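Per reviewer request, we include the raw input and output of the structure prediction for the construct analysed in the revised manuscript.
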Amino acid sequence: MGDRVGTTFPPGWFSIRMWVPPDAAFKVPQGGDPGYASEGPFYSDIPFYFTASSQAQISGTLTGPSGKPVPGVQVNVTGTDDQGNPVSQQTFSGIDGNYKVALNPGNYTVTPVQPSNATQGQYVPTTCSGARSTHRGCAITLSAGDQAIADFKLGAATVTGVIVDEAGKAQQGVAVNLMGKNDQGEPVSQHTTTGEDGKYTFVPSPGTYTVSPVVPFQGQAEDYANGFKTTSCPGGTPGDGECRNMPVPTDVTATVDFVYGCGVEGVRLHNVEPMVDSKFGAIPYSTVTLIGKGFCPDMKVDFGNDLAETTVDTLKDPLAITEKGARAEVVVARLATTGTVTVISDGQNATLDNVPIDSDSRTLGIENREPL
């Protein structure tokens, strides 16, 4: 036997030594006998047998992206104890971000309740002692007396950028979309707009995303040609007005910038099979597809010659705009050999004269650009 203070006792016999001061009586009951009393002063050794507790404990700390503790987070512990009984307990992190749960031996999963707003990120385990770590929970097998640790951090990614025009002027109020999947394969869809400084910010959970601004055009078709050039797309694939499949890990800031411009830089001609007319017979016709940086809300495009003419007005007919550009199908009489493309848009008047209408497909650039 012996005495210990403030320590953990292994199983076995121990004693507690008690000091009985003068003029005090100490009574020790024995069975049904009321016992005997002795007056102090003296020491008395009280023997006892210590049995080890079968309970164990899981504790941990919840922190934010900066490493500061996060109080008030609900932590769920579910599983089965060693007797096969289902277990479900809840607790909350304290002001220091710490929590603890006493449990019987068994198999458990510790999972913090994720923020209701996905833009705040997701809790992921950073320490999972004596166990395997799942993506959002910590799976632990406890034996009697175990002291397991399950720490979690609020992991968040940041996607930010700025949108300017070709002169460097900030573009305020531009809608920007972030679409993709987080690293659990769950779909993520977030939307925001640029501020006065042309900047925007998303804070999604880690994952792979596509960022794309929306051409500022009222009543536009969903596939309105994009007038944005991607100037920064770290780890992703820059495309026509978007940054595709960009990986964004935890605690990483990805900067995706765009330049907004519009205007036609050329036309793509494609001659197709002749169309049969009841009066003229087989008439060849061409599909004219405008190519360039994008199509502004005030754009008008005219394609024509002496025998056939058409106009694409993006204000009056937004559905005339397709994903790859404004598309005008022109029926041309067999005697016509050339046409003229005229574009009025974004302060410029661009023309492409003598566009040959023949049997070949081709792409031609607009060189003649004059300020209005």
